[in-house]
Amino acid sequence: MEPSSMSKPIIASKTTVEWREKKYKDEISNLTQKNGWSPSQPLCLYKDFWFYPFFLQGALYARDHFQAQPNDVFICSSMKTGCTWIKSLCFSIATRSQFDDSTSPLRTTVPHDCIPFLEFGEYFTAQGPKIPLFASHLPYTCLPESVIDLGCKIIYLCRDPKDTYVSMWHFFRKVVATTTPGDEDSFVSNEEGFELFCKGLSSYGPYWDHVLGYWKASLERPDKILFFKYEDLKKETEACVRKLAEFLECPFSIEEEREGTVQKIIKFCSFESLSNLEVNKTGKQVKGRGRFVENNKYFRKGKVGDWKNYLSAEMDELENDRVFVNQPWNFNKALLALNDYDGLEALESIPFEITPFWVRIYGLPLRMMNEKIGVAVGEAVGPVLEAESLNAHTSRSPGSEGSHQRGSFGGFISPNHGARAACSGIRGSGSQSVPSKSVTGGGAAFQNHVDSMVLRGKSVARALTYEDQLCEIISRIDGRVAVKTPRFQGDGSSDNRRRDARFEGCYG
Fold first, then answer.
1. Any idea where the Sulfotransferase domain is (predicted)?
2. If I label 270, which of 85, 215, 231, 444 is the partner at 20 to 30 A Cα–Cα?
3. What's residue 241's pLDDT?
4. CA distance 196 to 83
């Protein structure tokens, strides 16, 4: 990546921060608010995500004033998913023609100042070359419009939610002690913080919705959005660094490969190397109005699976028993479809035992579309108080016994509400779909909106449909990667409605 024109830098100052606070005070005060992790900092709901006011002020400022350029690249993530590391890697890759590890600005500047954050409103003029790299913790739907409209490239990094939570809890607890003295004594406990995190009440949360926004966008624009997992970056660092270089349009040459440039960048940007630099041991990052973060707070452990040292078995089970709405990978569980109704105000991570919802299975062989299978699936989710025969609302289409047909099972699962099963019908070559029918009410709604969830066991196909148009199919889970089949857009004609669109679910 060559030095080039950048989006106009804005130098943050006390005046800028004070002006921002005054300008957006009324807008923020009218938002839904809930208690956050610190007593003096409530969480504000903006576009279905929770923000601390200071971060939201910067997000609104970027919304109104930031104008991206077509060649800008954005490194995006939720908080505490490895952003410091991937920033240093991207910066080193993009500037390697001008610096080596002995002259890199990273030796004297924290990575967050080399690649500035959008929502902090602090687009510092880099001490090194001007490169079109920016970072953001903003959800995909909250990015400035110009970023999406211009088709800017995005690199997204996600991480195991339990490791993300542990890192976030430690970070905020330490930062609160330096930015708001007195609050550290009433900062949420580990158990309280984890419960809030599971409910989506965390900075830029709900976490899974944050991840899903970018994941879906990466499926729609794979040439523009590169989706990474922290665990993969740790396990296959060299391969990921090469992929980053390709995406940044500055691939490593044969000569660089021969000279070990990839390995040198990895070593220089390692946790051990960066955390031991003087700037990261003793430096501070100014946040305006007397706020600052000590650079060493950005470096804790950088390990995979460290959550096991902080979360109890009960807390782990709590996380496993949550419906993480819209989760994009399956952690060795099955991908099903979830809709929740009954007056819930917003989709969020919610306990099974208090939530009525529909469960749908796609791709079942006709021989398996029966009450016994429906009950078995329902019991894997929660108590099934009653089930109706799946075949009661289906019409069989021509085809060999056991072939995969388009179909679904819906179950209303809740100990607090009656549970019944209803099938929305099957579609195969030459067959008409049967309208969804529910003996509990509201069943037709799930035809128009399906959100994914995870459940133990085997992979199951999922689709997102709207007005008889098949918009998206995720046919199976291969490892932790969702395999998507080609989509089609129907025009509502009977021919398209009868089109054979098979869901190849994985059963065994």
1. 70-317
2. 215
3. 97
4. 22
